[in-house]
Design goal:
This protein is an all-alpha fold and about 375 residues long. The chain has 11 helices and no strands. Helices cover about 60% and strands about 0% of the residues.
Length: about 375
């Protein structure tokens, strides 16, 4: 016969265990509810924004270094060299000021971008003209690399800034008596990219916007952009053919080489335009040559070369992949020819900037150098 008292004791212990277990589960569950969940890590910014912020940061830092150097750049050099180096540093500071203003977001003119801070330690600030030339060259190469994959108009802005910084690096290095790589090192395209069979879809004008750069698209799509490049190349082929008999004999050889480049570019642009369903106009029988061209064909060629830069800038903004690589290379070559003839490619080759509409740098970006205040308003 079972002991009722013992059985009741067992049931009591089971009941207490159940109550304690339920209470423990309740406490644990309440703890999970009351303890705030760790916030999710913010999504990384788009690559184009990272590239813009890095370019802006580099421009500000290099500008500050140049401002520090200005006025003492040639302190240990002969007087003539000192003047030349100081002038090259001053021009670099002015250029970097424009770049920083073009790359700065007008809605938030802050120099603090913690979400975009580089993971590596910052490079030491350049302390000599040679150091500044090397840093400018490195920055220019990085801008061009980023331009290969950034979005639309930002690619054009980065490409133009990179090319201009490479040119400034070469000028400063020559003045300081040091060597850096060639200012424009990307060779001419060896041939147009092989397009897919039949017409391809074209980009829309909306993909070419740049935000604060002031260098938005002219409204062209990719097909009409190729048409514009082709028309520019056709005119330059004619101009070089007409100039060969009028140029100084010492300049005929480079002009002949440039003519061959334009003939290649014209042929490649035509093939790529057809692949993108561009409406190609018939090649004109000729172009009018004004008095300025007849009086100074070398200077006129420089102006004509400079006139092609916005067309290539649009093509960079509207294209991608192999088309953009071709356009980037062609823009660099066009800048090289422009400067050969003494033309000005502008502070951002390929982009038409209205500097009066660019945001001014905040006071925190003003370096203590003698050119800081003057350059910030340039």
């Amino acid at each position: 016969m079972k002991d009722d008292t013992q059985e009741a004791g067992h049931r009591g212990r089971y009941f207490r265990y159940a109550v304690f277990t339920l209470a423990a589960l309740l406490v644990v569950s309440l703890g999970f509810v009351l303890i705030p969940r760790e916030p999710a890590a913010p999504a990384p910014p788009p690559f184009s924004e990272q590239a813009r912020a890095a370019a802006f940061s580099d421009a500000v830092d290099l500008r500050a270094a140049g401002s520090d150097l200005e006025g003492r750049a040639g302190g240990t050099l002969p007087a003539a060299d000192s003047v030349e180096v100081s002038a090259a540093v001053s021009r670099a500071v002015t250029l970097l000021t424009v770049h920083a203003r073009a790359l700065m977001l007008p809605a938030d003119p802050s120099l603090s971008t913690p979400a975009l801070a580089p993971s590596s330690a910052p490079a030491p600030r350049p302390s000599t003209p040679a150091d500044l030339a090397a840093a400018l060259h490195s920055s220019g190469v990085q801008r061009l690399n980023d331009a290969e994959t950034t979005d639309g108009g930002m690619a054009r802005l980065l490409a133009g800034a990179g090319i201009a910084q490479l040119l400034a690096a070469g000028e400063l290095a020559a003045a300081a008596g040091v060597e850096v790589d060639a200012p424009v090192s990307t060779p001419l395209p060896s041939g147009a990219p092989t397009p897919p069979t039949g017409c391809t879809a074209t980009a829309t004008a909306g993909s070419a916007g740049t935000g604060s750069s002031g260098s938005g698209s002219t409204g062209a799509d990719l097909a009409s952009s190729f048409s514009a490049v082709l028309e520019a190349e056709q005119e330059l082929v004619y101009a070089y053919q007409a100039a060969l008999n009028r140029l100084n004999p010492a300049t005929v050889a480079p002009a002949s080489g440039f003519l061959a480049e334009h003939e290649d570019l014209r042929r490649e642009a035509a093939a790529m335009g057809v692949a993108h369903c561009a409406a190609m106009r018939p090649t004109p029988a000729g172009y009018a040559l004004d008095e300025a061209f007849l009086a100074d064909p070398a200077r006129a060629l420089g102006s004509l070369e400079a006139g092609t830069l916005p067309a290539y800038g649009d093509l960079i903004a509207l294209s991608d992949g192999a088309d953009r690589a071709w356009a980037l290379s062609a823009l660099q070559s066009a800048v090289r020819r422009t400067t050969h003839w003494g033309g000005s490619p502008g502070p951002v080759p390929g982009a038409v900037l209205d500097e009066s509409r660019l945001p001014l740098l905040p006071e925190s970006a003003q370096a203590p150098g003698p050119a800081a205040t003057r350059a910030a308003q340039s």
